[in-house]
Here is the input.
Amino acid sequence: MLSGKVALVTGASRGIGREIAITLAGYGANVIVNYNGSAQAAQEVVDTILANGGQAKAVQASVAKDEDCKRLIEDALASYGKIDILVNNAGITKDNLMMKITEEDYDAVMDTNVKGTFMTIKHMYRAFLKQRGGRIINMSSVTGLSGNAGQTNYAASKAAIVGLTKSVAKELAARNVTCNAIAPGFIATEMTEKMSDAAKEAVLSQIPMKKVGSVKDIAETVAFLASDKAAYITGQVISVDGGLHM
Ligand code: NAP
Here is the structure.
């Protein structure tokens, strides 16, 4: 489904990004596995892909820094000549009651989640225009659509991704570049592992399907949006959340 395509997945060393990288490689894409601190985990993702007969390499870059985003995109273009699929998955939380959120925690969340997404697209923009084709898939969250007590900074960042996604979709649509967002609900990863049992129970009770989602649920949605099957879909936010937000 994706053979001959080059995919860059940010934050692909762990959790959802890891599964996206492995899934896109499984469909034939050559995958750049971006990570920030987890070099060993990123190499393990690459080794898994190579062992399955796919193509991948790991590249360190903090998407919270503009110069790293620039290097990440420029190096990929120098190596492969194109990026067909850009998945902005890297994201962090710094949860607390709003009155306790420091400026540092606010900036860290906004820099990683919003600025990172903005800058990778910005540095890829001219190449997308020249390519006259491409797929951008940004990771939002149910929290960006519904809000969540204790996650004001994170909710603001994930809502910003929705506006960014729709605006980019409008700018690049005529060049055959689609830009969509996915809003995962409650997915079992290290990010949600940090939540208290009471908080987990509270969310679970609100999910109509009465179960948490898997990283595979998100990865297969990314693969669909990246494929030719989704050629006429742009500017959309696809919720993958067992019905949590509707
Ligand atoms: P996770 O398990 O905590 O993994 C986060 C990933 O992001 C790691 O690979 C990490 O890499 C990377 N990362 C963090 N800061 C980075 C930076 N500055 N530069 C590059 N990479 C960075 O999180 P997850 O649950 O898989 O979440 C992935 C995405 O889905 C996030 O955008 C999150 O907001 C979103 N999401 C998750 C859920 C959920 O229920 N899990 C729900 C809604 C939305 P290193 O370890 O190498 O630093």
